[in-house]
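To whoever picks this up:

The nightly regression suite flagged Potassium channel, subfamily K, member 2b as changed. Nothing in the input moved, so I suspect the structure step. Input below, exactly as stored in the fixture:
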Amino acid sequence: AAPDLLDPKSAAHNSKPRLSFSVNPVVLTTPEDECDTRTIVMRWKTVSAIFFLVVVYLIIGATVFRALEQPHESSQKLAILAQKLEFLARHACVNSSELEDLVKQVFSAVRAGVNPSENASNQTSLWDISSSFFFAGTVITTIGFGNISPHTEGGRIFCIIYAVLGIPLFGFLLAGVGDQLGTIFGKGIAKKWKVSQTKIRVISTLIFILFGCLIFVALPVVIFKHIEGWSTLESIYFVVITLTTIGFGDFVAGEKEEKTHINSSGGAENPEFLNYYKPVVLFWILVGLAYFAAVLSMIGDWFRVISKKTKEEVGEFRAHAAEWTANVSPEFKETRRRLSVDIYDKFQRAASLRRERSSELGMNP
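Regenerated output under the current build:
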């Protein structure tokens, strides 16, 4: 008979046992069990179900975005067409091809990050030190607003190398800062309130989320609304899109043309704080991403604790099952043997009685 693999006594004689993931109690399994990875990786049925859910979610999103945005796009197309026709009607000296060439040049300038509505002599460079520093930050944080991008071969080659090296470096920094923030916050709560570790995790996570939402979401919304002139919805939109590293680029801090003021002589001037505005915004992005990393780390700790407890409970259940099997199996075998003997004896006695009655009646058995 095959040895009972759940029985520690029989498992001890197995030639190649290995330890399971459960720490207490220790349960031994055979190499054949390694083929069953249902407890280690996600099952294909689960993966397929999640994939189907994601596809459905994408279809729903596409349908909603199309219903909301396509009418606005159509109205903008009609508006620009009407403006072109009106311009050509007012300026007979300009033909349609010349107007299209001008529009293409303006579009190329906008893609290059130049604002065609300003006087070229009064424009500030998109690649000054603060803007370049901000761009470098959007590269390593993978936000990539898209408002400015390198257009030279050298710039693109350097951007590739810079991103390949900088993104992992920032990832390590993000993980380290996130862990430290979560640990410091948890230790502070543990010193202030003498409660269990589970309550510390719950309290620290709730307070940390509330504190972070005020500092990294609510306060920046108010600041951007005041400095950028955005609405409340636009400010919230920018904060969420930025801190989730989506970065569409339709709203970028420090890019609004109204921040370039005109002095009394007609020249452009930038307030002094604008030289430090983009670096401060980048610092907010870095710390905000670290904050969200800390929140994710706390949630991950929760899942690890729950997973550890579940594995321990499963290990204990398997150990009890092995002990029960080890105790019950011999008793069951003994009971079966006794029943077999009793049944055999009863058949023997019945056969003997039949033979005796047959002999008494003078009949052959």
